[in-house]
């Protein structure tokens, strides 16, 4: 698949000596939804700011569809739309004037029909003549999204786009993201709502302390790193796991009424479950119910960050 964004050996060290990014290498494919996850202070916003030309890199190179963000800034930047975390708009302008100005800022010809389409998709059309200062926080967030889309970018950055917004905006936001993806727009998002990344993303990247520690296809990541748990509710509590079952690494609940077996979803491990049940029977441990649970993306993310710290 064609690479739309190429980041090579990107580093950023501030005057204080703090190194926010450490030789980051990342390739983003055209038309994918890429979720960048990381704890607060990991470098997500610095990385986005550097790609968008807001933050000056200490070293490294960024290419947007082959255009260097430093030596060919205008061509590279006009391909990018950015929805920042902060609500930064001219409070005295109307919604229509704001998005129209954003489009003209990138040298695009007026296209009222396109801007109307964007505003309608974000439920902003009936607010087009309202001044920004009169809008609610959620509506202001919608205006930021409309501004980012006004010049028809091919790469869209969404930096915590649904943080602190209502359920309706979150739903509208993801419907719009799906529609943009269908049109071939590449979307890179950061989010604290890991369930959103799990639902929306094609690939997942994890950044911690300025370093990319993992980039993986979402489905492959869940399959490779996700664990499954088999919990057996026992007919009668036990005080300890019998010695002959020690090799399974079973966890006994505090009340002794349940045991949990953690395994990978592979053929050999599934065969191991059959053997476990047989060995439980031999040990005269009976169970009355069982449940299985698979690790979520959040579980995997927490484990990865813990290992990298």
From TrEMBL:
Keyword terms: ATP-binding, Cell inner membrane, Cell membrane, Membrane, Nucleotide-binding, Transport
UniProt cross-references to SMART domains, sorted A to Z: AAA (SM00382)
Superkingdom of the organism of origin: Bacteria
SUPFAM superfamilies the record matches: P-loop containing nucleoside triphosphate hydrolases
Stored InterPro entries: AAA+_ATPase, ABC_transporter-like_ATP-bd, ABC_transporter-like_CS, ABC_transporter_ATP-binding, P-loop_NTPase
GO MF annotation list: ATP binding; ATP hydrolysis activity
Matches recorded under PROSITE patterns: ABC_TRANSPORTER_1 (PS00211), ABC_TRANSPORTER_2 (PS50893)
ABC transporter domain span: 5-234
The protein, known as: ABC transporter ATP-binding protein
């Amino acid at each position: 698949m064609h690479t739309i964004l190429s980041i090579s050996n990107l580093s950023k060290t501030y005057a204080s000596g703090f190194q926010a990014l450490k030789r980051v290498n990342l390739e983003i494919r055209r038309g994918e939804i890429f979720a960048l996850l990381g704890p607060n202070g990991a470098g997500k916003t610095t990385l986005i700011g550097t790609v968008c030309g807001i933050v000056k890199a200490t070293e490294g190179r960024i290419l947007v569809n082959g255009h260097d963000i430093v030596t060919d800034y205008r061509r590279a930047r006009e391909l990018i739309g950015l929805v920042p975390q902060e609500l930064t708009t001219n409070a005295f302008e109307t919604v229509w004037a704001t998005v129209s100005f954003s489009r003209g800022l990138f040298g695009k010809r007026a296209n009222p029909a396109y801007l109307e389409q964007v505003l309608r998709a974000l439920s902003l059309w009936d607010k087009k003549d309202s001044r920004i200062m009169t809008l609610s926080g959620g509506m202001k967030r919608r205006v930021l999204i409309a501004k980012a889309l006004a010049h028809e970018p091919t790469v869209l950055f969404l930096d915590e786009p649904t943080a602190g917004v209502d359920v309706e905006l979150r739903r509208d936001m993801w419907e719009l993201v799906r529609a943009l993806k269908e049109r071939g727009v590449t979307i890179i998002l950061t989010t604290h709502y890991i369930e959103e990344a799990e639902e929306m993303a094609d690939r997942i990247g994890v950044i911690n302390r300025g370093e990319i520690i993992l980039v993986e296809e979402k489905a492959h990541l869940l399959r490779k790193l996700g664990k499954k748990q088999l919990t057996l509710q026992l007919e009668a509590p036990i005080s300890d796991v019998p010695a002959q079952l020690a090799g399974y690494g079973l966890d006994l609940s505090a009340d002794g009424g349940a045991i949990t077996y953690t395994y990978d979803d592979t053929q050999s491990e599934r065969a191991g479950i059959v053997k476990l049940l047989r060995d439980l029977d031999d040990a005269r441990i009976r169970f009355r119910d069982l449940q299985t649970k698979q690790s979520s993306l959040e579980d995997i993310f927490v484990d990865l960050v813990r290992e990298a710290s």
